[in-house]
Prior knowledge:
The protein is α+β, with helices and mostly antiparallel strands. It has a single domain, classed as Aspartate Aminotransferase, domain 1. The N and C termini lie far apart (37 Å).
Amino acid sequence: MGKKLLKIGIPHVRPVGGHAVFLDAKALLPHIPPLHYPGIGLMNALYIDGGIRGVEIGSVMFGRFDKSGRELPAPLELVRLAFPRRVYTQSHFDYVIEVLTDVWKNRQTIPGYRITDQPKFLRHFSCQFEVIREKR
Protein backbone atom coordinates (compact mmCIF):
# COMPACT_ATOMS: atom_id res chain seq x y z
CA MET A 1 0.00 0.00 0.00
CA GLY A 2 2.85 2.36 0.81
CA LYS A 3 4.34 1.87 -2.65
CA LYS A 4 1.00 2.70 -4.26
CA LEU A 5 0.60 5.82 -2.11
CA LEU A 6 4.08 6.94 -3.19
CA LYS A 7 3.29 6.30 -6.85
CA ILE A 8 0.07 8.35 -6.66
CA GLY A 9 1.76 11.10 -4.65
CA ILE A 10 -0.48 10.92 -1.58
CA PRO A 11 1.42 12.35 1.42
CA HIS A 12 1.82 9.87 4.27
CA VAL A 13 4.15 8.96 7.11
CA ARG A 14 7.01 6.70 6.10
CA PRO A 15 7.81 3.98 6.63
CA VAL A 16 4.31 2.53 6.48
CA GLY A 17 3.54 0.39 9.53
CA GLY A 18 2.42 -3.20 9.54
CA HIS A 19 -1.01 -2.44 10.98
CA ALA A 20 -1.74 1.14 9.92
CA VAL A 21 -1.14 3.87 7.38
CA PHE A 22 -0.95 7.47 8.57
CA LEU A 23 -2.05 9.96 5.91
CA ASP A 24 -0.63 13.47 6.20
CA ALA A 25 -3.80 15.58 6.09
CA LYS A 26 -1.88 18.85 6.46
CA ALA A 27 0.17 18.15 3.32
CA LEU A 28 -2.76 16.57 1.47
CA LEU A 29 -5.10 19.50 2.16
CA PRO A 30 -2.88 22.61 2.38
CA HIS A 31 -5.88 24.84 1.62
CA ILE A 32 -7.39 23.96 5.02
CA PRO A 33 -5.81 25.78 8.00
CA PRO A 34 -4.97 23.57 11.00
CA LEU A 35 -7.78 25.03 13.12
CA HIS A 36 -10.26 24.18 10.38
CA TYR A 37 -9.24 20.55 11.02
CA PRO A 38 -7.89 19.06 7.77
CA GLY A 39 -7.88 15.61 9.40
CA ILE A 40 -11.63 15.81 9.92
CA GLY A 41 -12.06 16.99 6.33
CA LEU A 42 -10.04 14.04 5.02
CA MET A 43 -11.81 11.54 7.28
CA ASN A 44 -15.20 12.78 6.11
CA ALA A 45 -14.18 12.70 2.45
CA LEU A 46 -13.00 9.09 2.76
CA TYR A 47 -16.22 8.09 4.48
CA ILE A 48 -18.51 9.94 2.07
CA ASP A 49 -16.64 8.78 -1.03
CA GLY A 50 -16.09 5.15 -0.08
CA GLY A 51 -17.34 4.27 3.39
CA ILE A 52 -13.77 4.16 4.69
CA ARG A 53 -13.40 4.99 8.36
CA GLY A 54 -10.29 6.46 9.90
CA VAL A 55 -9.34 8.44 12.97
CA GLU A 56 -8.07 12.01 13.14
CA ILE A 57 -4.79 12.39 14.97
CA GLY A 58 -4.24 16.11 14.91
CA SER A 59 -5.62 19.31 16.35
CA VAL A 60 -8.94 17.80 17.43
CA MET A 61 -7.24 15.03 19.37
CA PHE A 62 -4.07 16.85 20.46
CA GLY A 63 -4.78 20.56 20.10
CA ARG A 64 -4.22 22.65 23.20
CA PHE A 65 -5.46 25.92 24.61
CA ASP A 66 -3.22 28.66 25.95
CA LYS A 67 -3.89 30.52 29.20
CA SER A 68 -6.20 32.99 27.45
CA GLY A 69 -8.32 30.17 26.00
CA ARG A 70 -6.98 30.49 22.44
CA GLU A 71 -6.72 27.16 20.63
CA LEU A 72 -3.27 26.11 19.48
CA PRO A 73 -2.97 23.56 16.67
CA ALA A 74 -1.15 20.26 17.04
CA PRO A 75 2.17 19.91 15.18
CA LEU A 76 0.82 17.11 12.97
CA GLU A 77 -2.50 16.62 11.18
CA LEU A 78 -2.79 12.91 10.43
CA VAL A 79 -5.50 10.40 9.60
CA ARG A 80 -4.88 6.83 10.75
CA LEU A 81 -6.19 3.97 8.66
CA ALA A 82 -5.86 0.71 10.62
CA PHE A 83 -5.71 -2.71 8.98
CA PRO A 84 -6.42 -5.81 11.06
CA ARG A 85 -4.28 -8.35 9.21
CA ARG A 86 -6.59 -11.34 9.49
CA VAL A 87 -9.65 -9.57 8.13
CA TYR A 88 -8.68 -7.66 5.00
CA THR A 89 -7.75 -9.06 1.61
CA GLN A 90 -5.83 -7.58 -1.32
CA SER A 91 -9.15 -6.51 -2.84
CA HIS A 92 -9.82 -4.44 0.31
CA PHE A 93 -6.46 -2.68 -0.08
CA ASP A 94 -7.12 -2.12 -3.78
CA TYR A 95 -10.49 -0.58 -2.92
CA VAL A 96 -8.92 1.76 -0.34
CA ILE A 97 -6.35 2.88 -2.94
CA GLU A 98 -9.15 3.47 -5.46
CA VAL A 99 -11.04 5.69 -2.99
CA LEU A 100 -7.86 7.49 -1.90
CA THR A 101 -7.04 8.19 -5.55
CA ASP A 102 -10.48 9.73 -6.07
CA VAL A 103 -10.18 11.82 -2.89
CA TRP A 104 -6.67 12.92 -3.95
CA LYS A 105 -7.91 14.04 -7.37
CA ASN A 106 -10.73 16.05 -5.79
CA ARG A 107 -8.87 17.29 -2.70
CA GLN A 108 -9.43 20.99 -3.48
CA THR A 109 -13.17 20.48 -2.96
CA ILE A 110 -12.76 19.14 0.59
CA PRO A 111 -13.92 21.78 3.07
CA GLY A 112 -12.68 22.72 6.50
CA TYR A 113 -14.78 22.23 9.61
CA ARG A 114 -15.51 24.04 12.85
CA ILE A 115 -16.45 22.52 16.17
CA THR A 116 -20.01 23.36 17.19
CA ASP A 117 -20.12 21.43 20.46
CA GLN A 118 -17.46 19.76 22.55
CA PRO A 119 -17.05 18.30 26.02
CA LYS A 120 -14.48 19.72 28.40
CA PHE A 121 -12.29 16.61 28.19
CA LEU A 122 -11.53 14.07 25.44
CA ARG A 123 -13.34 16.10 22.81
CA HIS A 124 -12.14 13.88 19.96
CA PHE A 125 -14.59 11.18 21.11
CA SER A 126 -17.80 13.19 20.95
CA CYS A 127 -17.42 16.72 19.63
CA GLN A 128 -19.66 17.85 16.79
CA PHE A 129 -18.69 19.69 13.61
CA GLU A 130 -20.15 21.73 10.80
CA VAL A 131 -18.71 22.51 7.38
CA ILE A 132 -17.14 25.93 6.98
CA ARG A 133 -18.84 27.42 3.95
CA GLU A 134 -16.39 29.76 2.27
CA LYS A 135 -17.80 32.76 0.47
CA ARG A 136 -16.61 32.82 -3.13
